Automatic annotation (TrEMBL):
PANTHER family: GERANYLGERANYL DIPHOSPHATE REDUCTASE, MONOOXYGENASE. The gene is nagX. Keywords: FAD, Flavoprotein, Monooxygenase, Oxidoreductase. Its cofactor is FAD. This is 3-hydroxybenzoate 6-hydroxylase. It holds the Pfam family FAD_binding_3. Gene3D superfamilies: FAD/NAD(P)-binding domain. Residues 15-360 form the FAD-binding domain.
Amino acid sequence: MPRSLMPRDPGPALSVAVVGGGIGGLTAALALNAAGHAVTIVERRTGFSEVGAGLQLSPNASRVLADLGLAAALRRAGSEPPGVVVRALDSGRKIGGVTLGAAARDAFGAPYYVIHRADLQTLLLDAVRSRPGIRLLMGREVTGLTETEDCVTLALESGNGARSESLSADLVVGADGLRSRIRGHLDPRGLSQAGMAAWRAIVPREAVPEALAGEATGLWLGRGRHVVHYPIHAGRDLNVVAVVPERQGDEDWGRLGEPAVLRAQFRDCAPDLAELLTVPDSWLVWSLADRPVARPIARGRVALLGDAAHPVLPFLAQGAALAIEDCAILAQCLAAQPVVEALDAYARARRRRVRRVQRAARANGRTYHTGGITAFVRDAVMRRLGPDGMRERYAWLYGWTPDA
């Protein structure tokens, strides 16, 4: 087992129920099983067909996955962009950039990848299925949770309520996303709409305007909106995300968006960007929502991770990365002390970090979408720092390690 995830003082093997089979849940299962625990993943879906597009795996996340034995699979499925090119959305003028690629790998000790969400889920799922100590329960909805001094019991239903069963474990990990059912056991506070929506599409690389067909990530900043794009699928396709204002949020994740509606939001943008946004004939739309860090992240024999514990707005590309960090720290804490004390230590270890990332993401959103004199100052700072300085500005984020 890699040193960073190796138990310091191995205790007895535990039974762990992980609720949610997304990126955080699958990674948690791998990390906990690598530490010697028996894991059952409870997933409400009947199959794995990840809805979404691309995501970014910064070094703080990719090093954890590499420590779990997934380095080669990540290299095959992901790409390392050489950097980020930042442009003004209306004029196309270059504002600045961020150096990534080999420079980021050298600086932070791990690669900065871009990858399709489904590809990441597939390689995690392949690893999970290869571990005899991990069991998958598909098509089960958690309808209740009962905690005693010695265990936690989940009430499960399947077949639209036609079948009921229960599952007991030494602890439960809620990795069930933004609208987590498990979170309600610890913190009943609800979501707040962010007033924005993310429109996502994947386009063939050959259909991309020539000026935007390089390997670098593109980031276009404008008042109240922005666009980001980067190659995925070994460079065959381009992942495109446009974040725009939205008056009324919608809980229907991945709903279809009308292309003409999005194009109207960008009718005054630079020609190359306008051409790119005409390529997709369908978009999937997510209303962005915000929520404070759970209070507490863990208590007793129940812990939360990822969006269930601390959803983060997408302006730092850290949603998946923070969930992956959580998994490494949870496994470490459980290796060193009894369950209740371990989960308390996990909550304390993560609280300051995730709050800082949440605040930084919200601040980045304001910076991305500002205008006037504030945008002028933003652009001047980017030019003064230069691409290497912009990368080092996030050393606190990308340089994180499980042993920090």
